[in-house]
Specification:
The chain has 267 residues and is α+β, with helices and mostly antiparallel strands. It has a domain of 102 residues: CO dehydrogenase flavoprotein, C-terminal domain (Enolase-like, domain 1, 2-Layer Sandwich). 36% of the residues lie in helices and 22% in strands. The chain is built from eleven helices and 14 strands. It has a five-stranded antiparallel beta sheet. A four-stranded antiparallel beta sheet has the order 11-12-13-14, with helices on both faces. It has a three-stranded parallel beta sheet with strand order 1-3-2, covered by helices on one side. A hairpin with a 2-residue loop joins β8 and β9. It is globular, with a radius of gyration of 19 Å.
Length: 267
Amino acid sequence: MQILRPRSLDEALDALAAHPGATLLAGGTDLMVQVNYQGRRPEVVVALRRVPELLQMEDGFVGAGVTWSRLTSAPWPGLAQAARTVGSPQIRAMGTLGGNLGTASPAGDGLPFLAAVGAGVEVASRAGGRRTLAWDQFLVGPKRNSLQPGELILGVRLPTDLPQRQEFAKVGARNAMVISIASACLVRFADGAVRIALGSVGPTPLRAPRAEAMISADKHPSPAAAAEFGRLVAEEVRPIDDHRSTAAYRRHAAGVIARRLLERALA
């Protein structure tokens, strides 16, 4: 196994240009599980922890190498709340937001926030330069993204007009150190507009446009309106049965989480 350790973005892009099929290593919280327990043996690994450009978190940009530990104190409440639910302190100290994007698991804890706020994913390669993709152009299926060979995730760009009312929650088999059965992030703007995105209930994070439109039209939602919002969200998700949950429970949980997040945003 050849391990390359670039110390700048230019060096990282050069390494990927020379080895387009290389495996990228940031925190390793997903990759090392595959190496240790699933027999994965990459020929070339590009280790990214020494690339300072990936560690930036300012002016609405969050670098792919920013750890969950740092994100627990991020200025975006929904992302900070999500970060606090990730794994153990050791996992949060190593795992990164870029890892969520690279793995593209529907259960990635940071992804509902990115979908709810309409984040863009910035990527770069030596051959193609820089480009920015909307979150739903980047996340294209379960554990599938649209990265091209030789391309590197730089980070995410967040809109500048985000409201402070941001709420995140997830349901799992226990209260901590758990992969979500269902998760959601909700944001509410000063004019009453609501956006919600959900994880673990579809092939990618997904929005609930009918529920969003219904509740955004009501500037002062009643408890009955909040319950209807949850019902509509439950109708719009696309869960599956797997070893962690049934589809029916995921659908029910999505509706309950949606209602509770709306109530928190209205409090």
